[in-house]
Each structure stands twice: as structure tokens, then as C-alpha cells.
């Protein structure tokens, strides 16, 4: 399973507006990471650069997960007050 699965996407062109359809397709491909993968594999990436990029992505994922957990805790409405009586 080292290859990507084929994912079918269809973008409709409405009222002969091809530019809008191209923008939508670029937005979809950008959000799913296809453009980043294309840009990465266009040229040779040195092993040190690849290690730095992978380590950065791992650290960013950990940071994002931690911040998401903290934000969801702060935004909870029914959490107990940590310091009762203090304002």
C-alpha cells in the first residue's frame, strides 16, 4: 500500500465559467495536499532537508493537537471553576 489510492473528483463548469471551476479545483487540490506533494517531488530533496521537513511536520502536528485540546478545554461551558470565589 505504498501508492496513493485513486480519488475521483469532479468539478462542474457552470455557465461556461471555466476560471471559477479551475479556482475550485486548485482549492480542492491545495486542501488535500496534492500541490505540496507535487512541489516536493518536482526536484530532488536532499536527505538533510527531508529530515528537517519531516521533523518540522511532526512537531507542528504535536503542537496543533495540543493547542486544539487546550482551546477546546477553555471553550467548554460546563467546566468547573478552577478557583472558586476568586474573580
TrEMBL record:
Keyword line = Ribonucleoprotein, Ribosomal protein
* InterPro entries registered for this protein in UniProt: Ribosomal_bS21 (IPR001911), Ribosomal_bS21_sf (IPR038380)
The terms under GO molecular function for this entry are: structural constituent of ribosome
| Signal peptide (residue range) | none
An example of a Gene Ontology BP annotation on this entry?
translation
Task: Please indicate which superkingdom the organism of origin belongs to.
Answer: Eukaryota
Q: What GO cellular component term, any one, is given?
A: ribonucleoprotein complex
**PANTHER family, alphabetically?**
MITOCHONDRIAL 28S RIBOSOMAL PROTEIN S21, SMALL RIBOSOMAL SUBUNIT PROTEIN BS21M
Cite the NCBIfam families for this sequence.
S21p
Q: Which family does it belong to?
A: Belongs to the bacterial ribosomal protein bS21 family.
Name recorded for this polypeptide: 28S ribosomal protein S21, mitochondrial
What is the protein's species of origin?
Sipha flava (yellow sugarcane aphid)
What taxonomic classification does the UniProt entry list for its organism? Answer: Eukaryota, Metazoa, Ecdysozoa, Arthropoda, Hexapoda
Gene name, please? LOC112680710
